[in-house]
Amino acid sequence: MAEQEAPQDFAATLARLEGLVTQLEAGDMSLEASLGAFEEGVRLAREAQRRLDDAELRLQALVEGPDGTLVSTAFEAPEMPGSSVGAGDEENDW
């Protein structure tokens, strides 16, 4: 599978990653193609995490306090529906 450049925005990165997961789950790819897709998926997942980390830092810098001044607070992202990353998904025993 040819290496592709990371999409320019988060939504495109996530969509490409979801497409790769769908292809891998179908099980119709050769070993070489599967490895290529997996490697690309790892790169995309890291890129998506980097973008989320950057967004978190930007949000921390922009939060306003009760008196209208900007304050830095910890940001906790809500759990995304359908997300099973790190949730002990027994279905994927790799």
TrEMBL record:
An annotated Gene Ontology molecular function: exodeoxyribonuclease VII activity
Gene3D superfamilies: Exonuclease VII, small subunit (1.10.287.1040)
EC number(s) from the headed UniProt entry: 3.1.11.6
Superkingdom classification of source: Bacteria
One Pfam family cited in the UniProt record for this chain: Exonuc_VII_S
Protein keywords: Cytoplasm, Exonuclease, Hydrolase, Nuclease
Region feature Disordered, mapped onto this chain: 74-94
Subcellular location(s) per record: Cytoplasm
Catalyses which reaction(s): Exonucleolytic cleavage in either 5'- to 3'- or 3'- to 5'-direction to yield nucleoside 5'-phosphates
NCBIfam families: xseB
Function (record text): Bidirectionally degrades single-stranded DNA into large acid-insoluble oligonucleotides, which are then degraded further into small acid-soluble oligonucleotides.
Subunit text: Heterooligomer composed of large and small subunits.
Family: Belongs to the XseB family.
Protein name per UniProt: Exodeoxyribonuclease 7 small subunit
Gene from which the chain derives: xseB
